[in-house]
Amino acid sequence: MKMLEDRILKDGTVKEGNVLKVDSFLNHQIDIELLNEMGKEFKRRFADKKITKILTIEASGIAIASIAAQYFKVPIVFAKKSQSINLDGESYTTKIQSFTHNRVYDVIVSKKYLSPDDHILVIDDFLANGCALKGLIELVKASGASLEGIGIAIEKGFQKGGEEIRQMGIQLESLAIVDGMDWTTKTINFRANN
Ligand code: 5GP
Q: What's the rounded Cα separation, in Å, for the pair 73 and 51?
C-alpha cells in the first residue's frame, strides 16, 4: 500500500537490532486518516470473506483493528497480555514471546468472546518472527472458530514469520512488506505488494 510505504519512508526510523520505529503514526501517536485508509484496504483484500469478528492483541493492534472493524461492521476482540494466567477455565490462554521486549507473555481471551460460529480475521501492527500471530492462531483454534485470514500493517519480510504463516495455507495480507533495512545507512526496501 503506497500510502503506508511512503509514510514509513518519511517518518519511520531504523534502529539497531532490526527494529523499525513508527511511533509518530502507528505505535505511539496515531494517524487516524492513515489507519482509515488501511482499514479500507483490509476490507478490499478480504472482500470475499465472511468475517464475524476481528481478533487482535493489545496494545498496538487495537487501534488498527478498531478502524478496520468499521468497514467489516463487526466487533473486535483483543487478546490481553496478563502477568499470570487465571486457570478458571473461563479463558483461552497461550504464551507469546515478545520480539521487542524479549520476554514471554501469557495471553488470554475470554471464552465468552470467541465461539465455534465465529469467522475470524486477525489483525496486528507488525509481523516479524510470527510468535504473536502463532499465539493468536492458537487461541482461534482452541475456540473452534474459523480463521479466515490475517491482516498486518507492516511485515518484516526478511524475518521468518510471513513465510511460515503462508506455508500454513492462511491468507496473509500485509499492507507493507519490508524486505531489507539498514540502520547504518537508514535505508528501507519494500517488496512489490498490492
Ligand atoms: P513477532 O511475534 O512476529 O516476532 O513480532 C510481532 C510483534 O513484535 C508485533 O506485534 C510488534 O509489537 C513487535 N515488533 C516486531 N518487530 C517490530 C519492529 O521492527 N518494530 C516495532 N515497532 N515493533 C515490532
A: 9
